[in-house]
Amino acid sequence: MSQDSLRHTVFPLSGLTKDYVKKIAAEAGFQHVLKKKESMGICFIGERNFEDFILEYLEPKPGNFVSIEDGKIMGEHKGWFTLTLGQRARIGGQRDAWFVVDKDITTGEVYVGPTTNHPALFRDTVRTDRFHWITEDPPTELIQTKMMECHFRFIHQMPLTPCTVTLNMDGSVWIMLSQPIRALTPGQFAVLYKGDECLGSGKIVRLGPTEHTLQQRRDRMKEAPVAKERTLEPAS
Q: Which residues form the tRNA-specific 2-thiouridylase MnmA-like C-terminal domain (predicted)?
């Protein structure tokens, strides 16, 4: 919302019902509010299966479920767009639970892990597109130092997480979290808070490496010196 819109907005609506608010709007001359269609976002599909709902509108694009741990093909899905990071993957023939940890929209492969809290689901860094600041301009602290301490969330009512924000030249921001968070997802919105104030939001467009990837790198670095020492051993 722009500052101009906020100047003409009064919160909260408290216990007023939607019908009553529409009546107030109509009496105030906002007749177009009564004609406006109701929101039909994905949250309103009810008890229907999400995959079945999506495939009513999009053609299936089959691809493989691939184990994030060893690259083994575990099964086949009907389209990467029917799956969300963190959800349980329905894989035919698999008795144990597997969970979606990553997706490759180029190849159509969906990577899965064997536990709901697999390290491949946790990251501590995200980048947004151009950030929308409710005050229109970034906080003075961020403008002056290009860095600011505040709090982050990307799901309604999730606990606030301390973070460090870095401002980029194009108005986007890097957000470095104090601890890794599960299932950060591109396309969702990063929202920043300072005390009780909501500073603004930006769409997540890029993710940092997962805890699984970082651990693999650490393991390779530990093995590298050993391999080097072996190559330097004198021939017997």
A: 124-204
